[in-house]
Amino acid sequence: MAFRLVEDLGITIDSRKYSGSVQFSDEDVEIRNRLFWSCYFWDKLVSLYFGRSPIIQDTPVSPPQILLDDTAEIEIWTPHGVVFPEGMHYPPTQAHSTSCFMRMCSLSEILNQIIIHIYDPIRQRPEAQILNCVREQGDNLRKWWNELPPFLKLIVNDLPTYCPPSHIVTLNCIYHTTNILLHRPMLCSRPFRSSENAAENANHLVQCLSSATSIISLYDLYRRTFGDSHVVLSLAYSIYTAASIFLLEIQALKYASASTLEKLRYCIVALERVRSANPVINTALGLVEKELQKLHINIMEPLDLGTQGTASSLTRQTSSQGSSQPDQQNQDTVQSPSTYTLPPHGAFSITPPPFTEHDTGTSYTMDPSLLNPAELSQEHMYDIAPELFEAFSYVAPMTTNVSTCGFGTDWPSSGT
Predict the structure, then answer these.
(1) Can you tell me the distance from the alpha carbon of 96 to that of 243, in angstroms, rounded to the nearest whole number?
(2) What angle do CA 313, 304, 373 make, to 5 degrees?
(3) pLDDT band with cut points at 50, 70 and 90 for residue 101
(4) The CA-based dihedral angle spanning residues 389, 390, 391, 397, taken in that order and rounded to the nearest 10 degrees
(5) Fewest CB atoms less than 10 Å from the CB: which of 326, 342, 361, 395?
(6) What are the boundaries of the region Disordered (predicted)?
(7) Helix axes 258-274, 233-253, angle to 10 degrees
(8) Which residues, 6 or more positions from 198, have their beta carbon under 8 angstroms from its beta carbon?
(9) Strand, coil or helix: what is 161?
(10) Residue-level pLDDT at 93
């Protein structure tokens, strides 16, 4: 309704070029421009959350991506409501709010095209249009990342010793989420496989895995600096998207490696810790737990790194329980995260911890088996056999819709 009201008020029209009989001041024009692009951005995220088509579109008569007042760029940013341990403080940091907002707007334009051509819940696009969207928006996304200023770009194997301003972390996480949403349908779609060569096939897998690991690295730095209570919904959704990739890996390979289980476990625990502030996350957790139950995986069970490996975890809870006890099986499969410790800072990145843990009132025990995401950030290190990509093409990812009251339950998960 709010987005429709924006259209009714004419905020979707360039107020300087098409003002008509109304003479807007420079301040009015600036406010209307900012409001339009803010709504444009949030419309795309809400479309993902609730499984609907975007409402607000950028047209030739839309306000330009130009902000006259850039004083927010040089302001000093300070986290509000965060109490740091005694003797520690958040260092003075330039906000870069204006440039971050503008880059977020241009990123949302790419996300808009991805939603329209791949995830539209109403219109199914022909295969040729989807392939064309993947190529075009892939180029646009690479260009966007390459042109991102260094003060806004966070590289997972070169993270700062403290978390940058929250909006900068959010920008990077949404970039990686968009990257996953672009490449994941190609990873899981057999009809499209024949139209690409082996290098392109491998690239989809590399992009998904590296972005998923980057998300948990950035999220880990964020929550250890600002705490779980300051995690916004867009960051939680990024974690959910990353979890979908780790789950896909297990589903496709029929094998749960220690590193993949640990990263998936981290995502689940992270979502558990923020579900009270973001109730919509309950749906995301339910979707993940449902898939784990199908695989008979107890995600909170301590990892066995002995001779048996972890492949047996997919079949441990099958015939012995029998079909007459489904409720008991579900209870054994999904446990509370209270028996799991979030790994120490540096487990998903190579930077030292800037701050100590925030007290959350929850007790955890440690399971140290982790994979350094720096290994995943080097795309040239991947040597993916065609059979591996073939395995992914036979599984379907979880839905992008995390709402229990969305605009329908047929929101496509892979664009096919």
Answers:
(1) 30
(2) 90
(3) very high
(4) 70
(5) 361
(6) 308-370
(7) 150
(8) 386, 389
(9) coil
(10) 94
Angle at 22 between CA 19 and CA 27, to 5 degrees: 80
User: Pairing mode, if any, of strands 76-77 and 93-94?
Assistant: antiparallel
Domain boundaries along the sequence of the chain = 70-78+98-318+326-354+367-392
Mean model confidence pLDDT for the chain? 76
pLDDT band at 52 (very low <50, low <70, confident <90, very high): confident
Q: How many CB atoms lie within 10 A of CB 118?
A: 23
Please, what is the Cα angle at 221 between 363 and 151, to 5 degrees?
Answer: 165
Residue 322 falls in which region: left (phi positive, over 0), alpha (psi -120 to 50) or beta = left
User: Which pair of tokens denotes residue 51?
Assistant: 């499984």
- Three-state secondary structure along 251-275? HHHCCCCHHHHHHHHHHHHHHHHHC
CA distance linking residue 334 with residue 352, whole number of Å: 32
Report the distance separating Cα 144 and Cα 103, nearest Å. 8
Are 231 and 277 a contacting pair, CB within 8 Å? yes
Helix (H) or strand (E) run with residue 283 in it: helix 281-295
Amino acid identity of residue 298, one-letter, is N
What whole-number distance in Å separates Cα of residue 324 and Cα of residue 336? 24
